[in-house]
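Annex B. Sample input.
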Amino acid sequence: MRGKFRQISLPRRLVADLMHASAGVPLVSLKRTLNLRAIVEARARAAQAPGWAAIFVKAFALVARTEPTLRTLHVKWPWPCLYELPRSVGMVAIARVEKGEDCVLFERVCAADEMPLAEVDALIRRAKTAPLHEIPSFRKMLCVTRLPLPLRRLAWAIGMNFGRQRANFCGSFGVTSVAAYGPGELHALSPGPFLLSYGVIRPDHTVDVVLRWDHLVCDAALIAQTLIRLEQVLGGEIAAELGAGRPQADARLVRAAGSRL
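Annex B, continued. Sample output.
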């Protein structure tokens, strides 16, 4: 049966490069159901509710603040070793439509634990709609992807195997989800050491979270503890930050109502 040839687009070539870089990473998965009642209720009361991607990015960065292993990369050059970063670097999968084609690009969020949640959310929302050339992480990725194959392979080899460059290329953790399209577990591949994916929030305020990790960096016991701590941070620090913004919003509404009287 005769078909037709189609040119591989730039975003699709980027995915091919990511899969090639991910092939050598020994990823292992752990799934756990988290109770998000506190954060769901706080988010419902917030004047401007942040997206779940921003919430999980900041929550994971807060957990990693006190656990250096979650900021650690395995690199091979100049010799195999572990490389600890001073701050978390999150890579958030952004689904877009470019020239009529669905594609995925990655927004870089550095030190989300030091940023207000609203700022993290604004970065991610802008990455979904702004022109590609206005997003620095998109611009850098696509610049490398335009190179001929031998040069791309060389760039990725450098990016994967030197600690500082690997943080720039792949971050210290990733966040992805297909919850916007309905329920389902996503066990994605990634060249980064940690990849968190989350499902649909159920009516009982629970959610399934899958955390994949590079087994060269740590073992399952730490990941199990990380998911427990993640649940605590979501119901604690993140819910408290959302709650702290509520009185200010209420005050603005009261002042606005008073001005109309």
